[in-house]
Amino acid sequence: MFSSPLRTLFLLLLALAPATVPGTLEAQAVVLVPEAVWDGLDDAPVPGVAVRVEGERIAAVGPRTEVDGGATVLELPGLILTPGLIEGHSHLLLHPYDETPWTDQVLLESLAERTARAVVHAEATLLAGVTTARDLGSEGAGYADAGIKDAIEKGVIPGPRLLVTTRALVATGSYNPKGAPEFTFPKGAEVADGVDDLIRVTRDQIGRGADWIKIYADYRWGLDGSARPTYTEAELALVVEIAASSGRHVVAHASTAEGMRRATEAGVRTIEHGDGGTDEVFALMARRGVAFCPTIAAGDAISQYNGWRKGTDPEPARVAAKRASVARALAAGVHMCFGGDVGVYPHGDNVRELELMVDYGMTDLDVARAATSGNARILDIDTDVGTIQAGKLADLIALPSDPTVDVSAFRGVSFVMKGGTVYRRP
Ligand SMILES: [Zn+2]
Prior knowledge:
Bound molecules: zinc ion
Largest sheet: 8 strands, mixed
Radius of gyration: 22 Å
């Protein structure tokens, strides 16, 4: 490729490149020395533990004197080191509905504007300590989520690791935007029905970059505008079968008990929203190992956009129903996913959902686990992320206090490392 002197110069330049540029130096060792380490599993942080990072992965975890040989030491005094947060339900291509209603975002904002916003959202998300996010639908922005993911992976823009779904699947006639019936409006997701169409569209989304397949098992298309099931159980099961054939999981949007039941029987891995979940359907989900992302923060935000003065007014019916459904899910022993539907409210404020999960009945420790090791298992990425253990990717954040006793500690993220690269320092 190069003549010999040029090659020597190239290698010299490579050696002088800044350590923060991924891939330019092989396995440079850094040892992080915080006040304590919470590994994503334990009951509490452990003091006196240091973490050695080589390249993009954690090489060792232990007493400083045992792991710091030959490494650059990065002191994080007074801080608790934890795994990076794993957001289970984001929409990087949406921004808060009190700024612009969802319909106007889908119909009036250009793809360029929406993508530009997503770039800003991705950075805000990472700097808030979210090092992985499952992004559940571009909502009319095509395959821009897959492009954003590529740009992050190539180091063009900062952002979390992304699991994307591209356009998501909706049944004919069910999804928005809608208007005068003689006009056909662009939809916030891709319409597909029946055997041939569902097989083709599921495979097409896979081919265009979907890591997960998202399907709307119900939507607000009942006679009175209430949520009602859309797809038949057979249609849902077919999509699960097609996705599984390629090694992918399916996530279902479902708010009704019947939509949740069909999705669970069909074999989806997670169910989103679940406002109308009954004891029976949550028991079924628990038996089948289907996880639940309650998206508490979305309904909480929308209720406030609609005029609810939180803390002053009584809780509106929507909020009360959510509180009751989360209580039923917890009583049934369903795996709880941290996924807030962020985008409805500001990107970077992901911790809102964690605080609400505690408010709705979970312990801080269980919520902190859900946001790290729990979501890693649910999203089937636990071989790489979710805990602080040798061999895992070095996705590490530091906080001023212990999140296992108060998850609001995650609001104080002052250090963010993703894949061994530092994006934020105290
Ligand atoms: Zn959503």
